[in-house]
Amino acid sequence: MVTQSRMDFAPVKEPLGFIKILEWLTAALAFGSCGGYSGTNAVTISCGENRSETLIATVNYPFRLNQLNIVEFNKTLCNYSTSASYLTGDYAVPAEIYVDVGIASFTYCMVTLLFYVCYMNAYTRTPIWPKTDFVVTVLFAVFWLISASLWAIAVQHIITAVDSNSVNINLSVCREIGVVCAVAESKDIRDLKLSVNCGFLNVILWMVNIFFTYKKTPWHNQRKTIHYQRLGTEHRLVRDPK
After folding, report:
1. How many whole angstroms separate alpha carbon 175 and alpha carbon 181?
2. What span, in angstroms and rounded, lies between the C-alpha atoms of 98 and 158?
3. Is residue 242 part of a domain?
4. Neighbour count for residue 64 (Cβ, 10 Å)
5. Measured between alpha carbons, how far is 67 from 154 in angstroms, rounded to an integer?
6. Is 77 helix (H, G, I), strand (E, B) or coil?
7. CA-angle at 49, arms to 162 and 70, nearest 5°
8. What is the torsion angle, in degrees rounded to the nearest 10, for the CA atoms of residue 128, residue 129, residue 130 and residue 133?
């Protein structure tokens, strides 16, 4: 059981601990902005003669747009009977991967911070801990790069799927003569870019953290020792050219 007397917050003030706090916060922002997203788009249908109707399309996690019903079966719009209509695309896989990486990063940062604060002496004395921290940091940097890239591509497809061109294709009434459909610009959809930015911010933070975790490993200390030994040998050779 961890007692208050064993806690030391000094490691949090160092780069190794401070960057973990940043990673913890940005991971929460990343999976929260994606997993908790829910946005609405208003589809305005102009029927002519100053008549118009409005449909509301709600887009939310996990972004299975092909299951999002814009119009119910046999609904009448502008005096036209319209069949059931859906948006295009299923982006659940990149969204769920992105959220899973975010939750895993958030959990790892929280556990690691507690370990730094409570067991930093054991961390520095036992080689396996800094080695493990370094390897996991490298893996998370790769995971964030892959998941953020996939999610960025998915977001571009989602934004395209809810624009006016896509709605005109998927909604049959929009193809009738004299009917004009348009999607109001949605701030909610633009906010999806925030989750993408958080993902690439995580990529940067975890890549930078590779350097700080590596410095704590025996591999870095061995490399420094070899370097100093080599410098010492060269210095002796210069002083004693024999």
Report:
1. 9
2. 15
3. no
4. 16
5. 16
6. strand
7. 25
8. 120
Highest mean pLDDT range out of 22-36, 43-57, 157-171? 22-36
Beta bridge partner(s), residue 45 = 53, 181
180 near 46, Cβ under 8 Å? yes
Note the pLDDT tens digit of each residue in 192-215. Answer: 888 999 999 999 999 999 999 998
Separation of alpha carbons 149 and 125, rounded Å: 38
Span 65-121, pLDDT tens digits: 888 877 776 677 787 777 777 888 999 999 999 999 999 999 999 999 999 998 888
Amino acid identity at 130: P
Judge contact between 167 and 43, C-beta under 8 A: yes
* CB neighbour class for 71 (10 Å; exposed up to 12, middle 13-18, buried from 19): buried
Q: Provide the number of structural domains found in the chain.
A: 1
Q: Which amino acid is at 107?
A: T
Give the span between the Cα atoms of 42 and 40, in whole angstroms.
Answer: 7
- Domain of 143 in residue numbering reads as 4-237
Residue 169 lies in a domain: yes
Give the torsion through C-alpha atoms of 184, 190, 191, 195, to 10 deg.
150
199 domain-assigned: yes
The DSSP secondary structure of 49-74, one letter per residue, reads: TTEEEEEEEEEETT-BGGG-EEE-TT
CA 155, CA 134: separation in Å to the nearest integer?
31
CB proximity list for 203: less than 8 A, separation 6 or greater: 141, 144, 145, 148
Cα 43 to Cα 116: distance, rounded to the nearest angstrom: 52
Q: Which two tokens stand for residue 89?
A: 């695309």
CA dist 59 and 61 (Å) reads 7
Tokens of 37: 């997203």
Assigned domain for 30 exists: yes
